[in-house]
Structures
1.
Amino acid sequence: MSGGDIAGLIAAGVFAVLVALLAVPILKLGRVLDELRASIRTLADGATPLMDEVTMTVSTTHEQLKKVDGIASNVSDTTANVSALSSLVAATVGSPLVKVAAFSYGVRSAFAQRQRTPRASGRRSR
């Protein structure tokens, strides 16, 4: 055997050891990928019922919001009606009440002033 043949054998042996050393991490990586695939499958199987529940919850919430919107519009209409009624009552009753209050104040003032002024005795002065 010549020197080139021996160098070729050494290089082949080193290459075989290198392949053997690299095979171990590659096999471990293959196992990790298998576990990852199984985990993703389990997650997908669990996510399907969860998505169904979320869809049902969103549908139920949407129906409840429709009911709340109906109630809110009724409250809004009622508020507008009460506001209009109070404006009508204020316009109808408010002005006469102010007039009655002013009249009663005038009468009370007149009686109070009449009681403050001294009365003349039975005779009139000329």
2.
Amino acid sequence: MRIDMRRDLTAALKNRDKTAAAALRSALAAVENAEASDADLPAAADSEHVAGGAVGVGAAEAERRVLSEGDVRAIVAREADERSVSAQEYERLGRADAAERLRAEAEVLGRYLGPDR
């Protein structure tokens, strides 16, 4: 799914499809954020250069999480759902233009989830 989304983001950028590009960028960023590790990095208590800085080559690097296809799918579904809920709120507040944009973004993301979403 992620490969398809990246490919489609490139196509959306080339075609100047702002709606698809915004939705895909946001969803891909959410996936990448979910991969970030929560691991505590070793800190140097006595570093004279940076307070709390890590010491040694590679000391500040941490393993990233590996997400399953189901994890990626759940993140994309959550992104689409958030847009739908926000669109309803914008509609309630009389912001039909913003609501329509969010609905269009949710529709773009929904294509990756299939009919059983």
3.
Amino acid sequence: MSITFHWRAALLLAAGLLGGCGPSYTYRYSPPPSQHGMQCISACSQQRNYCGQLARMQDNANQALYQSEMRSYQYCQQGKSKKDARRSCYYPSYPYSAGLSSDCGREYDQCYQGCGGTIHRILNKD
């Protein structure tokens, strides 16, 4: 088999895998008609911004903690055999923040709808 055939097969496989990702959507936000509803949505926006700031701060704290624990692990390994290091040195796992910023978006959407706004999901025709 030729190299060209392998490349074509790889490209077809990649296209097939990417094509199977499912439909994509766009969301259209329609605000409520009242002034009170608009003020409510403004409060939702402020809350989303605050939530995003907290999520970024949590990510930074998690990263700093991980780096500190990794330095501790590397220090623990010094002068030890691999076997001894495995027994006595704790290898840190990264404390991923499980989608805090996506939680902010979901909370915003709930708040937006609670204020009387509507969110329309539109299927993208590709």
4.
Amino acid sequence: MTAPHTDRCWTPRLLCAALLWLAAQAGAQGFGFTPTVLTLDPTRTLSTQTTMLNTGRVAAKFRVEVRAWKVVNGAMVLQDTRDLVVNPTEFVLPGGGSQVVRVGLRKKPGAQELTFRLIVQQQPYGQSVPQSVVNADGIDIKLDMPTNYSLPVYVAPPSAAPRMTYDAQVVPGGVDLRLENAGTRHETFNALIARRGGLSVNVPSFAVLGGARQVLQLEGLEQAAGPLTLSFVNAEGKASNVTIPLP
């Protein structure tokens, strides 16, 4: 006999409800960092730090690792490294408390900026990692939502600088924006807004590392006319504007 329509939809409803519950629990924890970007000038110091905050009431446990960070064909690549050390590598963050996380450079820097990611991963600890068991068609499914963070770490001498070039082409469905950094330091695109004619697209913040390329598709802008204008806040915290001609 054919099962009722409500039975066929029971499993996804259970999963959806569980995910909503977990998201609410995760949001109630409230973690943050200050600063969120770590910058190190090796001519002045070989270490820097960030402070992790717990604005919730429940203690949580975290593991901290560092990875060398590269961008290959527009994709982030993280690799094991001994060039950067972190302390502590594991800690319990009490409710309402804070924890200083320090990183130190072990490699002698050159003219090219060194880039790393500080990986902070939540570990099981009491009730700090929201968990639930959902029974779907007789199968127990355990869902958890640990909180993970990835903070950029930049090590650059004062002489390092980005050298950006821009190119854009109209393609079906949008405009392809090509960014290339031939410099020795990253460039940051914070609060990027791409405009063409009367249309605009907001792009989440990102960085283009020295020697890297990145391609963005700006959907919908093929319907407008005229040049492409980029407005953003750069790595130095200054407002920047770039105009790119389009055929």
